[in-house]
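Q: Hi! First time doing this. I have a protein sequence and I read that you can turn it into a structure. Is that right? Here it is:
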Amino acid sequence: MLPARGDIFTERALARTTQRVATARAFFTQRLAEGTARGDLLLTATSFGGSLTPKFLHSSLLPRRLRMVPLTALLLPILLSAVIVFVASSLIHMVLKYHQSDYRQLPEEDKLLAALRPAGLTPGLYHFPFCTHKDMSTPAMQEKYKQGPVGFLTIYPSAPPAMPKFLGMWFAYCLLIGFFVAYLTGHTVAPGAHYLAVFRVAGTAAFLTFALGPLVNGIWKGQPWSVALKEAFDGFIYSLLVAGTFGWLWPR
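A: Yes, that's right. Below is the predicted 3D structure, encoded as structure tokens:
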């Protein structure tokens, strides 16, 4: 008994689909072995119809060398990105100088400082007029707020600015950010990934700290938004530099 014409066409279509799936499987398996950015997915055939369905591999199915990049392999981009950001920040503040208008001088500064000295202020952060949450809504406190001034006051130790200390802490901060950028990117992007794949992840991680962090000062600390946005713009530049450094020196 001869098979029906429809059965022949169905078998041929199924054979062609199976061949395509096998070819696609072999292609993406090879990409996975090479550790490219697209090597984290395979195409498999479903039980019905043999359609192609992308499935992300569980980390336990990946070869061990493709699961993550160890931090020891990223020490150079961590250090170099911190150096580059440090130099870029120095150029921004010393050459471009668009931050010069961030701070203003107090009116009659000498008289105000002379009035503050007898108070014996110790280093710290002060808020005026000071109140607790309980008495914030009292008529007397509301009147103080209306009369003003209202603000925050940061007191440093009475000594010339310790620039080497501040610069050292800034560099350590850049190293700390580079460490966590490396940690996140190393657990997200495989060795041998394309430059842009590394750039996106590392840049996003750096942007979250360098660029979005300063916005908090505009929300809670009363910092003018022009200052907060300029600092966020600086952070955007720093994040691009960090991303470029990691993409350039990513293990391949």
